[in-house]
Description:
The structure holds two protein chains of two kinds. Chain A is α+β, with helices and mostly antiparallel strands. Helix content of chain A is 45%, strand content 23%. Chain A folds into two domains: 3-233, Cytochrome Bc1 Complex, Chain A, domain 1 (2-Layer Sandwich), CATH 3.30.830; 253-426, 2-Layer Sandwich (Cytochrome Bc1 Complex, Chain A, domain 1), CATH 3.30.830.10. By secondary structure, chain B is α+β, with helices and mostly antiparallel strands. Chain B has two domains: 2-220, Cytochrome Bc1 Complex, Chain A, domain 1 (2-Layer Sandwich), CATH 3.30.830; 246-421, 2-Layer Sandwich (Cytochrome Bc1 Complex, Chain A, domain 1), CATH 3.30.830. Chain B contains 15 helices and 14 strands. Chain B has helices at residues 65-72, 82-88, 112-124, 130-148, 151-163, 177-180, 185-195, 211-220, 271-286, 291-298, 328-344, 348-364, 369-380, 388-391, 398-408, and strands at residues 2-6, 11-17, 23-28, 35-41, 49-51, 58-60, 92-97, 102-108, 201-207, 246-251, 257-263, 307-312, 317-324, 414-421. Classes of the chains: A alpha+beta, B alpha+beta. Chains A and B meet through α3, β5, α5, α12 and β11 of A and α2, α4, α10 and α12 of B.
Amino acid sequence: MDKKGEKTMKNKTIELKKGIKFHKIETNKFKTNLFAIFFSLPLTRQTVTKNALLAAVLRRGTANMKTQEEISKNLEEMYGSSFDCGIEKTGDINTIKFYLESINDEFLPEKEELLKKSLDILLDIAFNPLIENGEFKEEYVEQEKENLKQIIEGKIDNKGAYALERCIEEMYKDKAYGLYKYGYIEDLSKITPKDLYNYYKQAINECKIDIFASGILPQNTENIVKENENIIKLQERNIQIKDEEKQIPEKENVVQESMDITQGKLVIGLDVTSNIENLSYITMCYNTILGGGANSKMFQNVREKASLAYTVGSNFLKRKQNIMIRAGIEIENYEKALEIIKEQLKDMEEGNFTEEDIENAKNLIIATIENIPEEQDTEISYYLGQELAGTNISVEEYKEKIQNVTKEQIVEVAKSVKMNTVYFLKN
Amino acid sequence: MKLIESTKIKEKAYIEKLENGLTVIIIPKENTEKKYVIWGTHFGSIDNRFIEPKNKQEVFVPDGVAHFLEHKMFEQENGRNSLDVLMSLGVDANAYTTNNHTAYLFATTNNFYEALDELMDYVQHPYFTDENVEKEKGIIGQEIGMYDDDPGWQLYMNALDCMYKENAVKIDIAGTVESISKIDKDVLYKCYNTFYNPSNMVLVVCGNFKPEEILQEIKNRIVEKANQGEIQRIYPQSEKGLNKKYKESSMQVSKPIFLIGFKDENLEGKKVKRHIAIEILMNMLVGKSSELYKKMYKEGLLLSPMDMDYEFTDNYAHVMLTGQSKDPQKVKQELLEQIQNLKENMNEEYLNRMKKKVYGDYVVEYNDVSDIARMFLSDYFKGINSFDYIEEYNTVTSEYIKQILNELFDEKKLVMSVIKSK
């Protein structure tokens, strides 16, 4: 009996209206139910700061719960349900995310109806903001502008993340994907409560909307969503977001910057330029052999053999077909580390890796795939990713695609890999 | 096997002490594919002085040795590294060192028993050579460098320095480049033979297991070693009073980060009950719906609620409230005011709401096999049964909460650490 198959059968997607979908994931693995709403919009310089500000302003108050304190009180009363919202970029798509997690009714000391309450509150925050005099409450907008400014300034606080962000910016200069997801201080000052509200009204009519529920869910869950007046009010929409063409530089771009740090942060951005069928699955295997874990070439050669780094590895940005190599190294070891990393890339091209390396990499990727249903937010992110990519690949198919990758294919991808940018943060 | 249970959240755990002294805790979870195992030894960075069981001699070891040992355990005599072996099985493997314990673990949906073979083999078979010990110094040196650049870690270390004069909790877990230079294979073997005895260790598994079956599987993989009984550790006497009230450093941060700590000198009595009361109080004082957060947010002095934590073992205990603000002193003043207000007027409705919230926080811990196993392990080393947080929560009365508030949240026990922007 295939238990996993049985479980995936229970997932269903309902198109509430054109461009608005409800996804139901039934699972009994957790003590909690997780609900999420995603607004997906094109990533542009004109809107990125507004989107970040919107996420912040919406959580401040709704027509029904006018202050953040009131929202918090309601959530605390519901056994500490937790609300979170945020902003993401996936390729050239900008997503505003809202999450609410609450204990499943089965595990409460007393009977309550947390499920409906949770969905109602989440929909209220996303669709029914507090409006005063035909605009967002000025006090909230001004405070959130100040807060967002501090978040943007705080970009430098985490050096590793900063170096990665800077490398991507250099790779996508004047392109959508190079935009910082929290936006820009110079754009922020110009936004008025009126502007922002007008933008919200427009965005809410045009964006792609995905609503998720995951947990032990009663039959009527979809009706709670369908019959919610915020959903009834929404119009049909038709949105398609296409990523811009990538520009591959002739020669790699080298960027070095200084900050007061003791450990240097090296980030190398690679372009995968192949057009081979099933490219993403092959590149995943390539990336895992190169820098995916303790068995990878990066870890073995930069850390274990040369003792140059504590953190070293690479990750794969699927939608952009980029691989980002990262290493924290002694500043004077820059040349040495770069040389070893280049050797590893060459090794990959020449097929200097074994069938065992491929097997190990596949095992690692498959373990990650099998872990998807084991974490509620991971599972939701997985299905959202599918939704945004316009694909519909089950966890089982995904595993099969990885299993089918061959060494020849990995070498072909390796030969298409080009260094785009070498970024180094030093002192 | 002893059975413990929580009916409220419908979870069970089985506990068995083997003849060699090893404690095994099994928490069955039927609906999950993911399995998690963690094997911990009661040996952390604070255990730097002890009596060697073999010859009854007192030993001092360099700072950072528990962590160094953790790194070196993966190295095998056949030239392979166990972390690589586990990764090649598609297993998510790792290890970590804290103030009071070291743990080796993996999570997996596949190849569980092959991975268990490897885990139990490498933890029971150390292989240290002069050469492999030397090599590790470069890697750990980089790890120390990474923490040197981490403002959050420096903030935390400075706060400990404020609270404690002698207590080994203030030693950096990884040690310093200087202290680890003194580590050699003899020191590592000395520590291994003392602390990696089964009687000093706990193994926790969580996942879809039949308790009797998995217990047998574990027993089959045990290497015979004599139970050497309890280890005599020498800690500095528990100290009263603070080392200093305030410490600051400058680093490249966009705006200051701060930590307000309260040193808890009452290390006796009911730990779980005390912990629950402190969680409720921290939430009331600085949580999302607190007066403090509302005010500070409005004034732009806090962007997000402070992180709150109560750390404790038999040797130390403290509350830590961490945040980022352009004016940490003002936040501190506000906190003191709110503490005063709460002492004068304990709002019962507010208290009950926070009790509900804290209950929910405990239930959420049972979502993931990794969180469950890690929680049982670290609670075990504190002498706690994790279910007690769910079961005892109703015994925490408002009188008791008031008592803790008066006792612990006192200006005399307060320290502050600040990392200013350069």
